[in-house]
Amino acid sequence: MAQLSYRSVSKIYNDGTRAVNALDLDIPDGELMVLVGPSGCGKTTALRMAGGLEQISEGEITIGGRVVNTLSPRDRDVAMVFQNYALYPHMSVYDNIAFPLQAQKMPRSQVRQRVESTARLLGLEEHLRRRPRALSGGQRQRVAMGRAIVREPQVFLMDEPLSNLDAKLRVEMRAGITSLQKDLGVTTIYVTHDQTEAMTMGHRIAVLRKGVLQQEGPPQQVYDRPANLFVAEFIGSPPMNLFRATLDQSGGRALCALTDQQLLLPEHFLDTRPELAKRLGREIAVGVRPEHLRDGSQADQGEPRLYASVSLVEALGHERQVHLKIPAPPVLTEDVLDVARDVDASVAAGLSEPSRREARAVARFDSDAKVTAGETREVALSADKLRFFDLESGKAIE
Questions:
Q1: Long-range Cβ contact pairs of 159-162 (< 8 A, separation 24 or more)
Q2: Contact (Cβ atoms closer than 8 angstroms) between residue 371 and residue 320
Q3: Domains of the chain (ranges plus CATH)?
Q4: What proportions of the chain, in percent to the nearest 5, are helix, strand and coil?
Q5: For 16, which DSSP code?
Q6: In what order do the strands lie in the sheet with 319-326?
């Protein structure tokens, strides 16, 4: 096992495009690190550079303290798992798993021992004589993983290995990979654009945008305390609700002035937030997660409140997701629009004038909440869960 480190690593293509820009990242021995971000953010390029499939333009990558920049993929002692399985259709499951060991001319008895041990680990014992076409998608992916595991490498590199599976299989395989990685204790980089995979699988996650690392840390920390507007909008489903407000003070209490409402904050709110206090009189971005935007009738009396119109109610069984229109300017910075373009380019390009005067939000209500589209509703915000961002830099105001 080994630590994998990126030191100011960049990938620059011939046309000058920087797919990865000065990436600094350490993946300790035995950790599962998830690289996450929208399409084209550089996460797969970063993975391929570690595996030797992409040449490094600047910086260095070390595995177990050894610089591997100029080493071939074979000499790096890493194993890759791709989304397309890359199995040999004419070979049995046994031969597919055994192939890398046979290529090393390992003794036949040792090959059999390792293959059978790996098959037991992955629940493939009964399928060793079958060919890939006789397997389900989940079984094929396990065979692909078996071919990586059997080599006993220092590092696993996984590039969206579950993207070709249906939703149910993805859930099962997520749990399987997480458990397997824990049992094996192999340093792993896992690339995905699916934030559910990132949040549930990674010991830490690293969020990339346009080749630049935006934030890294434990998933819950990144979710609770996004470093900037891009991370706030990208991580979370539904994402963090964001709106613009002017920070003011009245009667010794801080308040966020919206278009025609005021969000009154608790007493002494700014006492422990000196950086926020410096923004008095300035416009800032205010963020709140859907689970911290609740039915006002069910909230504590002292919580900040505002009125919003209900545009849509989605009953999900365990909860109701209530879509709201808040009379406050939305946050339409480049950080936020980048995420909107990735989800739906037409939404980002066609923002109408009315939408520029009201922010959209999603709240999570209890499943038995009586709420209907078209009504005006009082909603409460958990003050200690509010997040604030500088509109010019996009950075969180801590």
A1: 159/44, 159/47, 159/48, 159/80, 159/81, 159/82, 159/83, 159/191, 160/44, 160/82, 160/83, 160/191, 160/192, 160/193, 161/81, 161/82, 161/83, 161/190, 162/83, 162/192, 162/194, 162/197
A2: yes
A3: 4-229 (3.40.50.300), 234-389 (2.40.50.140)
A4: 30, 30, 35
A5: S
A6: 293-295, 376-381, 305-315, 319-326, 359-366
Coil, helix or strand at residue 139? helix
- pTM comes to 0.89
Sequence-distant (6+) residues with CB within 8 A of 342 are 38, 39
Tell me which H or E stretch contains 131: none
With b meaning 16 or more CB within 10 Å and e meaning fewer, what string describes 189-204? bbbbbbbebbbebbbb
* Sign, CA torsion 249/250/256/260: negative
Least confident interval from 40-54, 155-169, 204-218, 310-324: 155-169
Residue type, 397: I
Task: Quickly state the pLDDT bin for 352 (edges 50, 70, 90).
Answer: very low
Query: Where do we find the tokens 């080749």?
Result: 211
**Cα dihedral 354, 358, 364, 369 in deg (nearest 10):** -80
Strand order in the sheet with 4-12: 18-27, 4-12, 58-63, 66-67
The distance between the two most distant Cα atoms of the chain, rounded to a whole number of Å, is: 82
* Coil, strand or helix at 268: coil
Token pair listed for 310: 């209900």
Residue 172 has a pLDDT of 84
Cα within 13 Å of Cα(141), Cβ side: 22
Q: Which two tokens stand for residue 36?
A: 């996450």
Note whether 40 and 338 are within 8 A (CB): no
Tens-place pLDDT, residues 358-387: 899 999 998 888 899 999 999 999 889 999
